[in-house]
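Title: Comparing notes on inverse folding

I've been comparing how different people in this forum approach sequence design from structure. To keep things fair, I'm posting one structure and asking everyone to reply with a full sequence. Here's the target:
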């Protein structure tokens, strides 16, 4: 763990900062579009139109983070379920996966706290409620299915794009479009999270624990299923970054190179007895 911290502490801080920025954006836009004293609420009475606007805002926020210098370097996971999926695919080192996830949880909560310190009365208002993600009126199981479904779609799209040489540079744009569309049309079912760290970050201050199991189980299951289906199709998985066409270092490629070196070294060691046997 300490070796990973020494080598990759900057990437961990970037992951925390990226999700913190995302949560600040989510909180501020929720206040703008849902707090009763906001002029936007009076100017835009339609719930659907407001969801469209917040979807566009959060989709653009994600795109900006993916293509930012920090996002290009860390990979812009911002999501423990996403990191877990690429660990399962063998593209993230175990300690990097643990410390990325921890950083993401810290970042999600920190972003909400920043807004709470600056605008507590607005963020805590029932119409805003810390920008929490909670199940819709049909309950937790519908939210579970919806979260698993959108998580599957997101990761499957990311895997298709990142593993195509011509399409890889557009992965962040497609991921942002997915987030925007999911907020517009799926959020009434589950609040649209796909991210345990994002949900927990919003849930801590208002102490909304009862539905956390949905957001801690459905997104990982949906994303892991997408990864398994992708591998079953015999498709190659290249890297764990959203955007790889840049000059920034890639800790995931470094891990892959180290693994390949170990495999080659082990192969050479195993082959020595056989060579000696042939000589004899």
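Reply #1:
Here's my take.
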């Amino acid at each position: 763990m300490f070796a990973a911290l020494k080598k990759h502490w900057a990437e961990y801080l970037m992951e925390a900062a990226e999700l913190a920025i995302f949560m600040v954006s989510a909180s501020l836009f929720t206040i703008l579009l849902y707090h009763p004293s906001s002029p936007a609420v009076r100017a835009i009475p339609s719930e659907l139109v407001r969801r469209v606007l917040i979807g566009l805002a959060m989709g653009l926020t994600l795109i900006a983070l993916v293509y930012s210098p920090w996002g290009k370097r860390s990979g812009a996971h911002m999501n423990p379920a996403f990191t877990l999926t690429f660990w399962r695919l063998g593209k993230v080192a175990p300690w990097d996966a643990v410390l990325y996830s921890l950083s993401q949880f810290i970042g999600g909560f920190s972003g909400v706290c920043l807004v709470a310190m600056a605008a507590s009365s607005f963020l805590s208002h029932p119409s805003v409620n810390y920008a929490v993600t909670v199940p819709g009126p049909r309950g937790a199981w519908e939210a579970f299915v919806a979260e698993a479904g959108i998580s599957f779609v997101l990761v499957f799209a990311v895997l298709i794009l990142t593993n195509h040489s011509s399409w890889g540079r557009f992965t962040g744009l497609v991921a942002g479009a997915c987030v925007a569309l999911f907020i517009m049309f799926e959020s009434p079912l589950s609040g649209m999270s796909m991210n345990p760290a994002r949900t927990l970050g919003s849930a801590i201050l208002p102490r909304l624990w009862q539905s956390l199991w949905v957001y801690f189980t459905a997104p990982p299951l949906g994303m892991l299923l997408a990864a398994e289906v992708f591998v079953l199709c015999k498709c190659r998985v290249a890297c764990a970054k959203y955007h790889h066409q840049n000059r920034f270092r890639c800790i995931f490629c470094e891990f892959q190179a180290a693994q390949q070196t170990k495999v080659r070294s082990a192969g050479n060691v195993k082959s020595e007895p056989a060579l000696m046997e042939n000589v004899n």
